[in-house]
Amino acid sequence: MRQTTRYALIMTLYLGVFSPILAGQWETLQKVGDFDFFSLAFISANEGFAVGSDPFDYEKPGAIGHTTNSGKTWKKVENTAFESDLKSVFFIDKKNGWAVGARGLIVATTDGGQSWEPQTSKVGNGLSDVCFLTPKTGFVAGEGETVLKTNNGGKRWTVLSGGSQASGFGDDDTSVFSAIQFVDENTGWVAGVRITPSTQGQETLIQKTVDGGQTWVKQPTNTEDILEDIYFVNATTGWAVGENGVIFGTTDGETWKTMSSGSEEKLRSVRFIDAETGWAVGGDMGVNVILQTTDGGQNWVDQSNGKLFAYDIFSLDNNHIWLTGQNAVIMKYVK
Fold first, then answer.
1. Domains and CATH numbers, the chain
2. Tens-place pLDDT, residues 251-277
3. How far apart are CA 188 and CA 203, in angstroms?
4. Of these four, 31, 79, 197, 229, which has the most CB atoms within 10 Å of its CB?
């Protein structure tokens, strides 16, 4: 057999049999929307919500979008104009959801997103991420080392740390938490950056708690990159992504290893559907980055589609995966 023919046959077998990573593609459902979507969550294969900022409403830019056709079209939810941008949305089930944003804003729904009501966060800091374990128990993270907790669905939020500053930046050393995730009521992580104005430096930040957020222990990475997102599929297996294409992975929930993403662009969101298959998305002006792995992050394949960068990726299951990005672009992964 000729060498070139043999090589082609091997590659065909590899791509067709051993590499499901190339089995699907990203389809653009919406090229441009009425406002910027920073985060999205679906409660079924057809129905989902996205939160962000309405650039045409200067007084109340915070907005929530709603789709009932799997992301093809979106409408702004009535009476959801809030005084601050919304950065993150999370649904624990089909009825109960929360969204958080700038200046300590938290809003919640108990009727499947038909109506949203503000909750009292007790802080003025920018809030970056929200996660819930049950309809009652949830956590929020943000600027100024802020971590909040509720045990009653947000009727009352407790400030576990931070929250005393109106911003995450100033003359004092501080931490900015970009992402938070708990796998049970005791075990969770925050990711972001530690800023030290006194030395004009910064440090990549990952911290873990095993007592429900009362105390946090630093998990070193020995880097300076700002982390944007963190995601765990169980108590030991997780990933964190951030600026300059950085990706970290852990298989014991304690130590983190740098993974090669093949990109130098900012990665804003990471999502895995199991311990092997996942995506990291991001980019910057004019650059779209979509990376996929099927070996737990050891190798990543570029699936970038277009020039609009991505803000967030969400998976309902292995057949329903969406991302949102610049100008409210919506894409869906189609096998």
1. 23-334 (2.130.10.10)
2. 999 999 999 999 999 999 999 999 999
3. 20
4. 229
